Amino acid sequence: xxxxxxxxxxxxxxxxHPLGNFTVNHLSTVRISDDxxxxxxxxxxxxxxxxxxxxxxxEELLRRKGREIAAGLVLTVDGRPVELEPxxxxxxxxxxxxxxxxxxxxxxxxxATVADPKSVELRxxxxxxxxxxxxxxxxxxxxxxxxxTTPADDPTDGLRRYPxxxxxxxxxxxxxxxxxxxxxxxxxxxxxxxxxxxxxxxxSGEGFASVFEDAAAGKGVLLFLLLAALGWGALHALSxxxxxxxxxxxxAGTRGTAKHxxxxxxxxxxxxxxxxxxxxFVALSLQQFILPEDIYPWLTLVSGLLVVVIGASVxxxxxxxxxxxxxxxxxxxxxxxxxxxxxxxxxExExExExExxxxxxxxxxxxxxDELTWRGVLSMGTAAGLIPCPSALVVLLAAVSQNxxxxxxxxxxxxxxxxxxxxxxxxxxVVYAKRLMPRLQFGGRxxxxxxxxxxxxxxxxxxxxxxxxxxxxV
Length: 475
Fold this sequence. Notes:
Elements: H1 2-8, E1 24-32, E2 36-45, H2 47-53, H3 58-72, E3 73-77, E4 80-82, E5 85-86, E6 91-93, E7 104-113, E8 119-124, E9 134-140, E10 144-148, E11 162-163, H4 164-168, E12 175-182, E13 186-188, E14 197-198, H5 203-216, H6 222-237, H7 244-253, H8 258-285, H9 292-334, E15 339-345, E16 351-357, E17 364-368, H10 375-386, H11 391-402, H12 406-437, H13 444-474
Parallel strand pairs: 1-9, 10-13
Antiparallel strand pairs: 1-2, 2-7, 3-4, 3-8, 5-7, 6-7, 8-12, 10-12, 11-14, 15-16, 16-17
Helix pairs in contact: 5-6, 5-11, 5-12, 6-12, 7-12, 7-13, 8-10, 8-11, 8-12, 9-10, 9-13, 11-12
């Protein structure tokens, strides 16, 4: 009940952009008549691109966007390029977004005069390289009948809403062709199937942004707001990703202690906070040279490769220990008198090793369980888990800068990072103590013996998955 009351302190004032805080979404609606082609171009930019948009004057922004749209939209009629001319004044607005930031909405009407068109093609090359929805839809005008494979309906209602199926797989339709003949406005085209409408994808991120909105507006006690930010960070860590499997597998596969689990949490907190501020610097100072969303695939790639190296190191150490142990057993057997004993001490120093003794001969072999866990490994794993900043934390930072509330933003971001790391630390502690209890359970000894090798494989697979996810964004 107390936790529910705490989260009730912050009620989101504005929804996050459904496709993410970095997205640049655009839609072209084509209407073909017997004497003209009309294009209504709608641009919907999320909070982070809008920060750059609002730096200059409104007139400067309209000129810049107009040049980009004019250069990127290419209309071809009967095999010949045709210039699109403005048809009325553009309509620019800044709807409210997350954390007191705005989004950008621009509507531009364009028109080209043609005579009895037979084939029409439109290619949308605007804003290349930006992530987001890209779509073209068709309408039949007076005196024509149009046939096309391009959908005739727009499930987004002019980029005002985003159906759930589009969120799962955003449209990337940048070219469309139409066959035209005389008619009475008929249209033969497929329909887009729009599913359930969604207004946000990540409630934990939106909740965190709303904490800043309340704090900046002076609503609520700062201590409670910091606790709320910490709670949203903890919830955010439970969403897919964020290194939970990697951290658990790493501590399970090595001789991790409570001290190592806490250290991992501290490193994740520091790394995540530094990452947010570094990305914020890029968004505020270098966006004309490099886009913040272009950095994410590289961070994911570095994180993935780092995890692969860590997992491979643990696996190699385990395989070397197993090989040496087999050699020791063979040598002891060759002496004609051997005995082995295994023992595992589960104290705070938590160590385990095995001996193979041979008496009456020259051999006395000790085969200690490898001490795969090093502080360098802990630092690497913590860095990998915290390296990719949460976009909502970046939104809060940008909002804090724009509202001259940098100290407040920093406090909330640190609290959010602590909450995120706290979940990983709690998971790590659970793994450490569960591993100590395992030998007491039936079959627990066998599971404990196999756990390091299995955990190392899990770490490698997780790293490879991260790397594979990053590759399309960097090539």
